[in-house]
Specification:
Blueprint lengths: L8 E2 L10 E3 L32 H17 L6 H14 L6 E3 L1 H12 L1 E4 L2 E6 L2 E7 L4 H5 L6 E5 L2 E2 L4 H8 L6 E7 L6 E7 L1 E4 L3 E7 L2 E6 L6 H16 L4 E5 L8 H11 L4 E6 L7 E4 L10 E6 L6 H11 L3 E5 L7 E7 L5 E10 L15 E4 L12 H11 L21 E4 L8
Helix pairs in contact: 7-8
Length: about 425
């Protein structure tokens, strides 16, 4: 990837894809992107307050409103709370992806993309006045303590979860080496057990893979964190070591809400030898950049079919657009979300930060995809199934047939003879897809 001075440009996921969260570090279903370290990297520009200030009349208006609220609002509100809300409103009114972050929110967004965090290592979702375990992460304190998918956490350190699930999640967080007691109702039974866990540094890997059959791999990227490029190469090398050379790869970006821009660019670079990966346009010099691929690809340079859907967004769309435009992969699935803007996370004083939209980006062909998305080369029509285990997933089966050459070329128009899979998914050209908005 071509070097550039501004290394803190980041990309926002920008999607609320459900209440499932990876915890106890990342606790947001939304995978917002952040710099890879608590402070901006060396050489990066940091925004400073402008010398320009509001006029005396404007300042009087602001002071008058704050005085009225403090004096007459039904509940007492502190000056700091009022100021925080004013700042949130100022920034959030710009666009859906800009935000003012207090210290906790800034810490949270950094944890969510760091690839590791101190915690117990479970993915969860709220379930009434309890917390359901979706799965324990591999080699985590949760897995070692015996937590299982489907277990329901009802008490934390002998305090009921209650209606405030977010506070309960905070209870499970803590420094490495500290302990937490969970009371759990076992999945499908009335059995209740107490489990003692010692928090540890949990590694969160955003890439997983398996072999569908000899020569054909399935690789899924859940989101883009700082460790995604390393995770990808490890997964591919492990599969090659166990199964031999790859002729083809199904690369699954369905429901991938995005993440760190640089990670998506590095992954694209792993599949490309040359050419532009992404270009961005903004008002400041740092907001205008173009990132190019460099020689050196993944081993075997396998053929790629890339799965996308309407929840593939942001950094996922950068990867999809780069591989599609360079003819490196065929996109299969549904039109992507259309998150084509770049956010920069700017540290402020007292641990706060500003997450500000600074650029819009274009794919290598020059396409601006914001609020439009990317049309697949091959559109899968019919009901959209939830992603399943690769060996049972009908959309993965379609991608594998394309890799093997069984489907040959995707048809150029609808016809009664369209090939279908066992669940009625039909292949049509992207040109026949109706706009979703």
């Amino acid at each position: 990837m071509t070097n550039r001075s501004r290394t803190a440009i980041t990309l926002l996921g920008g999607l609320a894809l459900g209440v499932a969260v990876a915890t106890m570090g990342p606790a947001l279903a939304d995978r917002d992107a952040v710099p890879s370290s608590p402070a901006l990297p060396s050489g990066s520009a940091v925004a400073r307050p402008s010398a320009a200030s509001a006029s005396p009349v404007e300042l009087r208006h602001i002071a008058e409103i704050m005085d009225r609220v403090r004096a007459e609002y039904v509940d007492e509100v502190s000056e700091q709370a009022l100021l925080d809300q004013a700042l949130r409103g100022l920034v959030s009114g710009l666009d859906p992806h800009s935000a003012y972050l207090d210290q906790d929110e800034y810490d949270e967004i950094r944890r969510s993309t760091s690839g590791s965090y101190p915690g117990i290592g479970i993915e969860i979702e709220a379930q009434g006045e309890a917390i359901k375990v979706l799965r324990p992460l591999a080699d985590s304190p949760a897995e070692r303590a015996g937590l299982r998918s489907g277990d329901v956490i009802v008490r934390i350190d002998d305090a009921p979860v209650g209606k405030d699930v977010e506070s309960a999640i905070d209870q499970m967080r803590g420094p490495e080496g500290s302990r937490v007691m969970l009371t759990v109702r076992r999945s499908g039974t009335d059995e209740v057990v107490d489990l003692a866990l010692e928090r540890a540094l949990v590694e969160v890997h955003s890439v997983s893979g398996t072999m569908l059959e000899p020569g054909y791999a399935y690789v899924r990227i859940e989101n883009f964190t700082d460790t995604t490029p390393v995770d990808l190469r490890k997964v591919v090398n492990d599969l090659r070591s166990d199964w031999g050379p790859m002729r083809g790869m199904v690369l699954d970006l369905r429901n991938n809400p995005g993440g760190v821009l640089e990670s998506a660019v590095e992954v694209a670079d792993a599949f490309l030898e040359s050419g532009t990966i992404v270009s961005a346009f903004g008002r400041t010099p740092d907001a205008r950049f173009s990132l190019d691929a460099t020689p050196g690809q993944l081993p075997d340079a396998p053929e790629v079919v890339l799965l996308v859907n309407g929840a593939s967004a942001s950094a996922a769309e950068i990867l999809a657009g780069a591989l599609k435009d360079h003819g490196r992969a065929r996109l299969v699935g549904r039109r992507t979300y259309g998150k084509g803007s770049v956010q920069t996370v700017i540290p402020l004083s007292d641990g706060r930060a500003l997450k500000l939209t600074t650029s819009v980006y274009a794919t290598p062909s020059g396409a601006l995809i914001n609020q439009r998305g990317i049309d697949p080369d091959v559109v899968l029509e019919g009901p959209e199934p939830a992603p399943a285990a690769p060996g049972r997933d009908p959309e993965v089966a379609v991608a594998l047939r394309l890799l093997r050459g069984a489907a040959a070329e995707a048809p150029r128009s609808r016809s009664a003879a369209l090939p279908t899979d066992s669940r009625g998914l039909s292949l049509v050209s992207s040109g026949s897809q109706k706009p979703r908005r």
